[in-house]
């Protein structure tokens, strides 16, 4: 689970080129795209990991932010299903603004707590990046924070670079503060890996 006692600072990551690699899911697991009604399952996932105080708030957020254009969310929101065809995780290939122009941004990479440790997050991230590739939308940005440092390592190992100054949407880039927090939290080797993937 995420350690939300770690101070929150905005971290911005950017990927200019996709790393083409085989997407591997555990046996019996499959991908599928958003279908009407999935907002309830998405809300359940988000509530489980503590991103929202209630499932109702999470569902309202999804509907408000992603369901205004059903055709778009149907091709941009991907889920991974377990052997029982239950939703185990999700990720969204969305768009935000940067300098008054659309920019691709990866939203809400989430895996159910009971399904973590099976590399589903990596597979979902790869699948979402393929969506961006098919749509011709690069570079891709991510907004995250120090308490998601496990995901940060996933991102940088997939070709993302932590941005020292660049940003998008309404986020203030707080690279220095975030890295100071992580320096105290991570091993020397882990911290140096993140520094080496900063630009």
Q: Level of helix content?
A: 25-40%
Class by alpha and beta content: alpha+beta
**In whole angstroms, how far apart are the ends?**
29 Å
Number of strands: 7
What is the 3D shape?
globular
Provide a count of the helices.
7
The gyration radius over C-alpha positions equals 16 Å
- As a percent range, the share of strand residues is 15-25%
Query: Which residues form runs of ≥5 with pLDDT under 50?
Result: none
Architecture blueprint of SSEs:
Layout: E1 11-15, E2 30-33, H1 38-48, H2 55-66, H3 70-76, E3 77-81, E4 87-98, E5 101-111, H4 120-135, E6 140-144, H5 149-156, E7 161-162, H6 175-185, H7 188-196
Parallel strand pairs: 5-6
Antiparallel strand pairs: 1-6, 1-7, 2-3, 3-4, 4-5
Helix pairs in contact: 1-2
Structural summary, described in words:
37% of the residues lie in helices and 22% in strands. By secondary structure, it is of the alpha+beta class. It has a seven-stranded mixed β-sheet with strand order 2-3-4-5-6-1-7, sandwiched between helices. Helix 1 packs across helix 2. The longest helix is centred in the middle third of the chain and has 16 residues, at 120-135. The model has no long low-confidence stretch (mean pLDDT 95).
Which keywords apply here?
199 residues; 37% helix; single chain; globular; seven-stranded mixed β-sheet; alpha+beta
Give a quick rundown of the structure.
The protein is built from seven helices and seven strands; from the N terminus they run E-E-H-H-H-E-E-E-H-E-H-E-H-H. By secondary structure, it is α+β, with helices and mostly antiparallel strands.
